[in-house]
Amino acid sequence: MRVELTKYRVKEGKSELVDEWVEYMHNHMDDVLMNLEGEKMFVETIFREAFNNVEYLYWYSVQDDVESDDAVSKTDLDEKHLEYWEKCIDKTFRPEDMKAEIVMIPERIKRAMNYSND
């Protein structure tokens, strides 16, 4: 199981486009959740922060270690998501991967995710 948290900087002046992106994801949540199933993504959460007049997005995820064959097929949702990504995420800022020191997931939840400790 992979547990990740990564920080990305939003391009200056793209806050309203991020609003649109977030709204798009909310409005297409059924498709988003279907994509997560195909990617063997158990949890994906996007956090937003404004600090010193700079905006950041944080991606938190809990995902199966094994990549799914379904993850390689691109959907319309994926295309739209990547389009927003290209327009909004500042590539001059090196993404910051946070280190997971402790992962606390109860056994019953691990079993529900079909996760094994092997």
Keywords for this entry:
about 120 residues, alpha+beta, Alpha-Beta Plaits, four-stranded antiparallel β-sheet, L-rhamnose mutarotase
Give the structural class. alpha+beta
- Arrangement of strands in the largest sheet: 2-3-1-4
The parts where pLDDT drops under 50 for at least 5 residues are none
Name of the CATH architecture: 2-Layer Sandwich
Query: Main β-sheet, in a few words?
Result: 4 strands, antiparallel
Please report which band the strand proportion falls in: under 5%, 5-15%, 15-25%, 25-35%, 35-45% or over 45%: 25-35%
DSSP, total strands: 4
Instruction: Note the run of SSEs as H and E.
Output: EHHEEHEH
Q: Give the CATH level 1 class.
A: Alpha Beta
Stated plainly, the CATH topology is called: Alpha-Beta Plaits
The total count of helices amounts to 4
Round the Cα radius of gyration to an integer and report it: 16 Å
Distance between the termini: 10 Å
Q: Write down the overall geometry.
A: globular
Count of domains: 1
- Quick check: average pLDDT? 89
Helix content: 25-40%
